[in-house]
Amino acid sequence: MCKGLQQEFPDISISKIRYLEDQKLITPRRTPGGYRLYSPSDVQRLRTILRLQRDEYMPLAVIRQELAAGRMVEEASSSTSSGDGGAPAAPAPRAASPRRMAISVRSGGPTFSLDDIVEDTGAELRLVQELEDFGIIKGVPRDGTRFYDETDREIVRAVRELAAYGVAGRNLRVFKSSAEREAALLNQILAPSLRSRNPERRREAIDALENLAAVASHLKHLLLVRDLRRIIG
Fold it and tell me: Which domain covers residue 207, as residue numbers?
């Protein structure tokens, strides 16, 4: 598989693929002997990760959110799985990808216990509890256990990276306040349609909300880049 990707990604290496696996971005199937087998969907997912890194300069934390939201680069897939040292897969033509992040606001998806969150993200229990205290994440109690959705998990993962630079939970209020103001603005724009009893109108409003959220997120990213460039002169 590594050889099959080298034409499009010359700097790809087995160690890099292993690192992405360690970060739980890809999860190839294992044989009883421990040999990794990559399905066509695994290869497609890996191509998406590599393209988002190369073309859109996204950090892994953001790429993880993109994948969770269903982002996937279209490509022709092989009908058979190939192993670590298998025959090279035919490279897909490089396609232009949108610059705006895909955003899904629809509920659903897997939920995770507190222990799952700690294990998946590598965050300390104290950090997760601090985020709950500050209202950054909000677990839902069920059968005596608190459960969190995938967005909560990715928030914890991102905050863990910030914590390595000394960013504490109380410093995250600025992010929380900004997000709340943006959500209130978008709600104000689409409120009548979002509250409609007409299923089709409400569905169209949710689609519009996701598009507006993507545009707003992209704009905020551009403004941040502009201000950071001013900082470094």
Answer: 171-233
Domain-embedded: residue 90: no
Exposure on the CB side of residue 194, measured as CA atoms within 13 A: 14
Total structural domains within the chain = 3
In this structure, the number of other CB atoms found within 10 A of the CB of residue 182 comes to 16
Residue 94 lies in a domain: no
Pair (6, 61) in one structural domain: yes
What is the per-residue pLDDT across 67-110, written as a single tens digit (0 to 9) for each? 887 777 654 333 334 455 444 444 444 444 444 555 677 766 67
This prediction's pTM: 0.58
Rounded Cα distance between 124 and 39, Å, is: 34
Distance CA 82, CA 14 (A): 14
Q: Is 165 exposed, middle or buried (0-12, 13-18, 19+ CB in 10 A)?
A: exposed
Check if the beta carbon of residue 73 is closer than 8 Å to that of residue 35: no
How far is residue 108 from each of residues 15, 38, 139, 149, 217, measured CA to CA in Å? 34, 27, 14, 8, 22
Same domain, 163 and 176: no
